[in-house]
Amino acid sequence: MFSRNLRNICRRYSQNVTFRTVEASPAQQNDNQIGLFYTMDKNLSKKLFGQGGLPKSYMKQTKTFTETSLMVRQPALDVIECIKSSDLNQPAIRYVLYGEMGTGKTLTLAHLIHYAHDDGFLIVHVPGVSQWLWKVPRLKEMSNSQTREGFVDLPLDAAAWLLHFKSQNQVLLKNEDLKISKEYVWSKRETTPAGAPLADLVEQGIARVKYACDVIDALVYEIKQLSNNNKCKTFVAVDGYNCFFYPRTRLSTPTKKVVMSEEVSLTTSFMEITKNDWKNGVIVVTVEDISVPRDHQESYLPRYLLYKKGFEHLDPFVPVKVDRYSEKEFLTCASYYRDRLWLRGPEQLESELKLASACNPYKFMELCAPL
Amino acid sequence: MSVFIKYNKPGSLGTIFNVQVLWRFNSTTAETVRKEEDEEFRVLDILKKRDRQQKRTARKVNIQPDRADRMATDQNWGNVWPGPKTFHPSSVPLPLRQGYVPKGQAPPGKKANAELMKIPNFLHLTPPAIKTQCEAIKKYCTEWPKLLNSEDAIEKHYPVEVITSDYCHASPTIRNPLARIVHLRVKLSTLNLDKHAKDKFLRLVGDCYDEKTDFVTFVSDRCPMRKQNLDYVNYLLTACYHESWNVEEWEKEKCEDDMEYYDWDNNASKKSLVNWHLRCNNQEINLTDEEYKNYDISKISNANGYKEAVSSLMNDGENEDTVKNYGSAVRKLFGLPERKFVQS
User: Fold this and answer.
1) I need a surface site. Which of A273, A284, B199, B256 has the fewest CB within 10 A?
2) Strand pairing of B215-220 and B182-187?
3) Is any Cβ of chain B less than 8 angstroms from the Cβ of A298?
């Protein structure tokens, strides 16, 4: 028992090694740390990604490894540098992360969210659009919108997202400066007065699930207003953004009519916040081929996945490619897996795994699992 | 017989005895009958005088020597073999051999050789024969135009090319159904078309146009005769050409989605660029579509590079390079640092 504890402690503190960096703040990381792992604070990762935001397989791995370690990779540093050097008083700049399946777009986004959190951004993070529109359970709670004709609400998803928003921005929402600019009337008895804190609006949506979608709509409007008035700066991150532009969804109304993606009220809200008609904001979205059905997965490039409509919506944006592991990144990842006892065996194993996985991070992880 | 076996137990003594007796009786009677027929005594004929026949004397036949052997070496071959015909061994003074044999043996000679008769021969097409024939028909020919002295000149003056195939083979019929197919091809650049007409022509011909070679190729095999097919492809070319010059009423409804190429000035991309520029300078955004189209982007720094990047992304198709170009153009536009590429 004692020896196991000792071993655990040794493993947890195996920090003085070549594949780790002690620089846990993404804002301070630089090119020297490319390919190295840094460990996120446990409470922070729970706060930021407790409600989703990391891929399922990665979540499992963090549990196994008893730590949330992210590799410092070039795309994330690139975007951070761009954010640092850009003028926030200009209209918000859109960044689009693209790349093959499994190269780490979502984890790059997680890295950027960590940066945004450290830098005091208000985080508007949508962990998976496809879970709203495409990869849905057969019976999904949905209702026709009360306020907007012809739109469909996803109240439970909206409320869950509000919870996620609340937990990600615990600190900032306590700020008294974030006030609502106008009064919102939900029903005869329920109103949110002008000048109430933003947190009230979020609470309202969580407490009265029926109005969650309308709350999100109001929230988006208010966040843009607050950012425009320099009250806060906002970091918008949407994972699987192209799902908004795939024409169909798996949702269907009680009359068996398939819902178009632009008929979902959440789509319009997040479409609104990804426009560049506001300032003090940074918008990072990922486009993934796996978040849309098979018939539209022929290419992972942004123009193809976003369709013409999405391209015109985002244009001009900065495309950032997330590539496979480079030689160095692969080796540090392999030694990290060895440190975590996730990978054992002779030295030659690495070169074989490199060939078998073609340096694709996800495939590499999968291949290491049974070893 | 089956009944017999059924009612007599096999192996019982009595049955075996009876059967044997029956068999013996039958065989003895048969032998006695044969002996009676062979009763006659045969005579031994040692010298076999009766069968000897008279020796046949070979009749002398006056056979002429082979014609091939009697041919003069300086004869006019064109007279011997004036036209196409099946091989005949006596007419050809050549030691020909043809046919499959096992290894080590010589192929059969030319006489009575079906193999040589089966294959088509070109014995009537010797160079002197061709020469004399050409000389003979020369008087019907006109002179080759002097100006058509190169391929380019021919292409320039006769842009329409008609390609047909003739088939020569040995079979009961000399007609081949494939000979009816007619290809007509013409370079698009040689046609007199303006911008609208060219677009319409390309839409009309569809797959017939090859972008790499600039050829428009019409192929017809729908009629049974070559002449009919030729008429048809000529008709196709004429009809497409004149139709592409017509401007129909509904063509005015052509919108941005129907465009054959991406014109950045007419598209949403320019609009969003102008909007972005106005927002950067905190100006009001209330432009009409015309104003967007005519907005001078040279005021915006790096906008021209952006325009080209978007146009190439749309016109050349999306690939790694065009996306990369687009990215660097946008970064320049926003004043962001270039992406560093790590050396792996």
Assistant:
1) B256
2) antiparallel
3) no
Q: Clarify whether residues B280 and B325 are in a common domain.
A: yes
pLDDT digits (tens, 9 = 90+) for B137-148: 999 999 988 888
Number of separate domains in chain A = 1
Find, in chain B, the residue whose alpha carbon is nearest to that of A76: B339
What is the phi/psi pair of residue A235, to 5°? -115, 115
Task: Give the integer Cα–Cα distance in Å for A345 and A347.
Answer: 7
- Same domain, yes or no, for B171 and B221? yes
Is residue B116 domain-shared with residue B180, that is, in the same domain?
A: no
Q: What is the pTM (predicted TM-score) of this model? A: 0.73
Please answer yes or no on whether A316 and B276 come within 8 Å at the CB atom.
yes
pLDDT, one tens digit per residue, over A26-51 is 888 888 888 899 998 889 999 999 88
Range of the domain at A259: 91-318
Residues of B in Cβ contact (< 8 Å) with A304: 318
Nearest CA in chain A to B323: A319
Q: What share of chain B is helix, strand, coil (3-state, %, to 5)?
A: 50, 5, 45
The mean pLDDT value of chain B amounts to 84
Contact B336 A82 (CB under 8 A): yes
Query: Cα–Cα distance between B192 and B201 in angstroms, integer?
Result: 11
User: Do B334 and A86 make contact, defined as CB atoms within 8 angstroms?
Assistant: yes
ipTM of the complex in this document: 0.88
- Among residues A48, A71, A51, the alpha carbon closest in space to that of A235 is found at A48
Decide if A82 touches B, using CB distance below 8 A: yes
Q: How many residues does chain B have?
A: 344
**In a shared domain, residues B298 and B215:** no
User: In this structure, is residue B208 part of a structural domain?
Assistant: yes
One domain for residues B158 and B180: yes
